[in-house]
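Exercise 7. Predict the joint structure of the components listed below.
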Amino acid sequence: MSLPLRVLYCHCAYANVVPKAVKEDVLRQLTESGVAFDAVPDLCELSAKKDPCLAELAGGGPVKIVACYPRAVKWLFSAAGTPLPTDGIEVLNMRTETADAIAQNLLGRAAPEVTS
Amino acid sequence: MIPLPNATRPTTGSGAFRVVVFEGTGSRPLEPTTRRELVTALLQKGHAVTVVRSGSAASAITGGTLVVLGRFTDAQPERAEGNGGAVAIHFRDIESAPAARAAEMVDEIRNELQLPKPGGWKPWFPVIDYDRCTNCMQCLSFCLFDVYGVSADKKIQVQNQNKCKTDCPACSRVCPEVAILFPKYRHGPINGDVVSSDDVRREVMKVDISALLGGDIYQALRDRSAKSKSRFAKERDEDRALEERQKCLVKLGEKLDIPAEVFASLPSIDEIRAKADAAAARAAAALSGN
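Solution:
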């Protein structure tokens, strides 16, 4: 039996390299959708601290990771001693993609209207 | 006690601390705006969050401490254990708690357990792309802050992330293979962007310059320093020497995007020499086994 697809969102704290508007809009669309997901305050911090959460997030089957550059995400997990599997991983880059494009990929539908 | 769905069923123990916003069976769903505010508040306080909804998957919770927040339809115990005691589960009903209060509840549990507070340090440190790294040890020889080390199997590795100087990407610029990333850096390819052929060409040019210096940058710098000392001793103009050094540092800082604070925290020249010698010895020992 194949494992269900998961979503992991990185809030990229401590730096302004991910546009604030993009990460907030992605988070809004995720929270307002009906999907379950995992969210972490900062993948870099978890990697530096070798947080056991990373092993849980890396394992468990296919996952779409909403963060930054795929090369950075891959080696952040590796640096923590929890390398990502080679299959079933897709990284969506909030530094280069729009929030709507990411939401479309994750949720498979057009972005909903802002509710507040 | 409410059953956690299979996707979040605890299995083996670990030291993780996670918050679950539970909206599965036994809990009433949150309004979308409330959910967004709650998740945002938790993330801003540095907590990893899993939103559990019926019918879709989140990652497994394999152990440690779990704080489950929800609008529970049945009374939940304040504390429970899972997986033979491997997971400590703390339930909190957030029926009448606004997002900020719910996030405080999580902090209170963390404080009670005397767990370290998240955050407090901008996670700035090098990450090695081992698909590109050739284990040349240039980064080990270059870094003056003991960030790099050599593993038992003689591979370069980042050993002391917290010794790295915030916002300084200098070591990534000496890497001939563009293999050192700083994910929070502004520009590519240091930020993890795809490495282009132009990037590689630039690095090769740097290596050529290094070779022109005799392949030993530290020796070249020592020679230059000795020559300068001799010249300035003759000129007896220490102010001019200092001015020239400062100009050089400013230029270097601008060229390599190194913050001024890094220069201010450089070790003394004797310490630099000692570190250079120690790094060279470690690098040589590692390379001899390649």
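Discussion. Residues 237-288 of chain B form one domain.
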